[in-house]
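for the writeup, i need someone to sanity check this before i put it in the appendix. the sequnce is what the collaborator sent (i think, or maybe the updated version? ugh). structure was predicted straight from it, no edits. if anything looks off just tell me and ill rerun, i have time this weekend
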Amino acid sequence: MSELSQRIAGLSPEKLKLLAQRLQKKKESVFSQSEIVAQSRESNLFPLSFAQQRLWFIDQLQPENIAYNISQSMRIVGSLNVAALEQSFNEVVRRHEVLRTTFTVVDGQPLQVIAPSLSFKLPVVDLQEFSQNQREAEVLRLASEEAQQPFDLTKGPLLRVTLLQLAGAEYALLLTMHHIVADGWAIGVLIQEIATLYTAFSVSKVSPLSELSIQYVDFAMWQRNWLQGERLETQLAYWQRQLGGKLPVLELAKISQVRRTIQTFSGGREPLVLPKTLSEKLKTLNQRQGITLFMILLAAFQTLLHWYTNQEDIVVGTDIANRNQAETKELIGFFVNQLVLRTDLSGNPTFLELLERVREMTLEAYAHQDLPFDKLVDALNPKRELNRTPLFQVKLVLENTQTPSLELPGLTITSLKVENKTVQFDLLLELNETEQGLFGVWEYNTDLFDRGSIVKLSNNFATILNKIATHPESKLNELKLILNELDRKQHIAREEACQNTIQQKLINVKRRVNSK
């Protein structure tokens, strides 16, 4: 551990929070010196951001890949002003150039093409003649079909919205965007603007939203100009040191199936609920140790992966918003960056000792978060394999804020649950911190894992969290023994259940024979 990290580790939770605030102010000060400004629009061709460039490259390798579709569906009950809703979407498209953007190639380089205008039509599909049961089935079918409809990045638009009319005052709204023009934060911006605009337009008022000072393409150009020279070298030096040598590949051999030669994106989902009592214990631990909840979850998650793989060098990915300037927070666009978090679990440390390693590594990663993932992959130049993502295959994300729900005056709007059947990674655990506890979902590649294996993995994760919440001094080998014993009991239970099933089938056969 470096001297700086030792000093940080000795800080109380209050002082650590103060340090974080000062670092944030210092970072904001640095960024204010390199303010993003609106660029000339003499041409309608512009460079891609680094994040966009990565998705464009993936699209070239696997055209019509639907893994990067972002979909939301909702049910609307009440007297909906369809014209005002369409007008609201048109105004959002006018405000945000990125929603009028397509992609082309000039002299071998991908470029953004911004259309000066785009007339957005809101198609309405009438399902009122269907019976109640038929209508519900049709809504789910259409929503699933819409979510899995690929985009053509060269043609666009890269935003699709469809309104299904179920009854005189009942609708379903289906919204899909390509990730290359939006991220989770952007969906929240879109929803908030639609709510504001609809509220005004539905009563014949003008838009109350002020004009945007910059657009996403201005960020893309700023990013390329800002991240050069010494600034770029400093970022690269850290990551080359942190991820140097042979980067481990996680192989969850205990539960995964044979990997195909080409990466697949078929996905399943399994919910995870961690009760409030456990969440409170974890918060007490993070306050006592002067760390964040994410650091505890990451250490526990990597402990779980250590048990499944027997590897001591564990690499996990995570997301970071990457909206460091105030003006970027109100933009629709693809800003989110990915961090690679590598932890050494060797030496059978206690969980508290592992937490110190995770804290040091995570703080340093955050301090070097400005290097785009795409640039990192290019710099490290790992051996490209067509059947897995580069640098990491497993991801952990903790969301502290949820995407706002759409609220329109005089209408009741609820989320419409439509199963997402695609994934981008082998395994992703996405958690949301709420007042009721930690709620999340496992997203897993169904060509690698079956549901039973993920349920077991989820239970094992909860077991680790419950143990370290009360006994954080436990060594990793002790945690592994607990999981081994749990695994043994589950195996015995499965064997007994199988024997009981066989016996019952034999009894049924004998009964049929005797009845004859």
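The longest strand covers residues 69-78. The CA atoms of residues 397 and 421 lie 19 Å apart.
thx in advance!!
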